[in-house]
Design a protein that fits this description.
This protein is of the alpha+beta class and 226 residues long. The chain contains 8 helices and 8 strands, in the order E-E-H-H-H-E-E-H-H-E-H-E-H-E-H-E.
Length: 226
């Protein structure tokens, strides 16, 4: 599942042309924000805090909101599987990707066991596994999108999606997919404006009650690459 927890945005004019291939350091400059493929390793903790803050409905009921949760998310990150928005080297936005070969977040049982103990590691591992999506051939899956509060409404999320779609075309993907929860109507409407269409609705009962999720349904959406 994924949550796009950010305001409706308009896209500013790009200073540098879109497209992955042929751009220095895979970077795209939009006014004061640079969109980059991959996460600088020194920003892993910032990324973890951003994920837990913006996507709290999904992760906090499982991992909690203390330092253990921040460390668990940070240690699970595959830095190559994302686009990040940077402003003066500070992380302001993140779009996490999942391919057939690699997730952005890769929670290991041993790490959960070290942080939470045996029984809690088993329960948390099962809950996290429930969130997994298995992309098909030609499918690029968005694990999640997060933008800091101060950058919302400034086009960061839309910029991330613009770069994502150019990347998907350049890499010959056929479909971009994501999931949004039923309580995030703003995100659902934004995705529809970006060209995503609803493919499937999945009721989450009784898992949502057992885990403590405040939402009832997951909505799978897809964008066909032309």
């Amino acid at each position: 599942m994924t949550v796009f927890d950010t305001a409706v945005m308009t896209m500013p004019k790009a200073i540098r042309p879109s497209g992955i291939n042929g751009t220095k350091n895979d970077a795209y400059l939009y006014d004061m924000v640079s969109i980059q493929k991959g996460l600088p390793p020194d920003l892993m903790r910032s990324a973890s805090e951003l994920v837990l803050s913006a996507l709290w409905e999904k992760f906090v009921p499982i991992l909690g909101d203390d330092s253990r949760a921040i460390e668990a998310v940070a240690s699970s990150i595959a830095v190559s599987n994302c686009f990040c928005a940077l402003e003066k080297s500070a992380l302001v936005g993140l779009l996490a990707l999942q391919t057939q070969d690699q997730n952005f977040l890769n929670f290991g049982f041993n790490d959960l066991y070290t942080r939470y103990g045996l029984w809690r590691a088993v329960v948390k591992g099962m809950a996290l596994h429930f969130l997994q999506h298995k992309p098909r051939h030609g499918e690029l899956y968005v694990e999640g999108v997060a933008v800091i509060d101060a950058a919302r409404g400034k086009g960061v999320g839309t910029q991330l999606f613009d770069v994502l779609m150019n990347f998907a075309r350049a890499q010959n993907y056929k479909i971009i997919s994501l999931e949004v929860i039923d309580t995030n109507i703003r995100a659902l409407h934004l995705y529809e404006r970006l060209g995503f269409r609803i493919k499937k609705r999945t009721p989450l009962w009784p898992a949502n009650k057992l885990i403590g999720w405040p939402f009832k349904e997951s909505i799978l959406m897809a964008y066909a690459i032309n």
